[in-house]
Design goal:
mainly beta, 2 helices, two-stranded antiparallel ribbon
């Protein structure tokens, strides 16, 4: 299929709504993208018009998104673009939707800590506890029609984050150095 894929950089405009459906959960939210341009006359950056998109994320991406994202956070969204027209209140309106394939925080504007989702092992899973688990469909990754995907359980953060340890050691080392200023 000839889908149009886009990558958008912007901010979460509304709270993420998560719903379970027969084919897996779906998360939806509005996403604001504002163009910024350099104004040579003023010597400043200025905001251009803001475009709003409705972003949908299915299955595990949707569940992880709902557990990770809040209003106002900067994101990068990659997905399939769909433009549709509808008539509301006697006026023709255009809606732009993105079916997300990948979503992440925009690390050019802040930091994030990744936590892998803990999923039950196939041998330990009870039938129906995860799509395909115990159903003889071990090679399938997509949920069966009628299967309900449970929200993921976030794994705990590591006890000693190696990046945090290095930062603590560097801070302690710089604190013990004496600087003499004439």
């Amino acid at each position: 299929m000839n889908d149009t894929t886009v990558t958008l950089v912007g901010n979460v405009a509304t709270a993420v709504e998560y719903r379970d459906t027969a084919t897996g959960g779906v998360a939806r939210f509005r996403f604001a993208v504002t163009a910024r341009r350099w104004d040579r006359e003023k010597g400043l950056w200025s905001d251009g018009p803001t475009s709003f998109y409705t972003v949908s994320a299915w299955r595990s991406l949707g569940a992880n998104l709902a557990a990770s994202v809040s209003v106002g956070e900067p994101l990068v969204v990659h997905g399939r673009l769909r433009v549709r027209e509808d008539e509301r209140d006697g006026q023709r309106k255009t809606f732009v939707d993105v079916a997300a394939l990948a979503v992440g925080h925009d690390l050019s504007r802040g930091t994030a800590a990744f936590r892998r989702v803990a999923r039950p092992l196939r041998a330990e899973a009870e039938p129906g506890s995860w799509p395909g688990a115990g159903s003889g469909a071990e090679s399938r990754t997509e949920p069966q029609v009628g299967a309900v995907e449970r929200a993921p359980v976030l794994g705990s953060a590591p006890d000693r984050d190696p990046w945090a340890v290095a930062a603590e050691e560097a801070a302690a080392e710089s604190a013990t150095q004496l600087v003499t200023v004439p």
